[in-house]
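Morning!

This is the sequence you dropped in the shared folder:
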Amino acid sequence: MELTRHKTVPSVVEMKSESKEPLHAYTAMPSHMLTIMGARRHPAINSPLGNSKDSISIFTSTGFRNLTNEVYRQYVDAAKPDVVIPLADMTYAEGTDSPNSKRRTKPASSKRQLRMVERTEAWIAEFFGRGNSADEVQSKAAHVFAPLLPLTYPAQWDYITELEEDFAKKLSGLAVYDVDILPDLANHGALISLPRLSLDSNTNNPQEILRQIQLGVDIFSIPFLNTISDAGVALSFTFPPPPPEVSSSSSNEGEGNNIRPLGIDMWAPEHEVAVKPLVEGCTCYTCTKHHRAYLHHLLSAREMLGWTLLQIHNCQVLTEFFAGIRASLSNTDAESATTFDRQCDDFARIYDSELPAGTGARPRARGYHFKSRGNDPKMNSPAWEKYGKDDETESDPALAGEIAGLAVTGAAAEGSETPLVPDPDADATDLDKKGFAEIAK
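The structure's back. Tokens below.
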């Protein structure tokens, strides 16, 4: 297959596997786990490039580039995900890295909103191919979740109506970017029974998850899971929540009030010699094989194993959280909805409304941690400082890079970072004074 619009072919497209679908094999995910393919990350990325009538701007391993509907469909056919989300024309506000931050879309002008709707309508029609039978479409992409834009219901009424009238039989679900529109779907009978995947930018704590379930969300993408693990916090909430009297009498990790924290900061000094699991009663690998003192040591030593063990624990907490929700909703009696609503109210009353921020350092930024706008500060602090103050390269970073044998481009060439240029006559003592091979304390 020839992917003509890109200079390089992504490796996932060339992945071959006889036992698994290509995307499952590429990500090493077991077959029973759901894979979702979409052009927009969650949380979303604010691209410095705009969308056009034929393509959207996406962030890739080689920077920002345009993606057309045609090429995206080729990727879908090659990767064979379980769920695919067609392209949608959306813009986003600049995000933050706090686990408690609210990432909402920029208010768009009425003209821009109209263009968003018109382009998305055209792209989803092109994605399916007007005139194709439902069987032909289903054979190429078994489960298509149509995107619902982060706009008000009146602004995208025409688009939703078109989904109902022309594509409802071809859809397996809806990808919702603003869940507050869900009550209005009651006006579109053919779409009511479709599963809803939440890609809402405000999904930043368990209380918000419960609110969205009450609105009718079925599937979640939860970005705060990675963020909270990177912050060195072990989640500690449960659903249904514990009785209020238990909450009052139990330890609140030093809070001194009746509100239970949603997580435990593993950087805190009191964990240095705490030989007990992260959360009492947790059955995850981390809590059954290790203790708080070991986690605290790993984080203090900046060992990636520490954040990995935290992620294992936090995934278990969320798994049990959703299991509790399903059990609450599975009651067949007439009181089940009332019971779930009451448990949601109890959860909001018993637990803190925000996730702990974490008091330690995050792991060194990885490939998807980046700043997309010009002149933004770097996620990682410089590993080295410039050696010497009187060097002729002081005012010319690009020249310094040439002297050091480095290819300097982008921010470095503009002077926002300085390459390493040591004095060729320096000895070990001089290098040690400048921080070379400095031992972290």
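Headline: The chain has three domains: 11-222, 225-350, 392-433.

More detail when I'm at my desk.
O.
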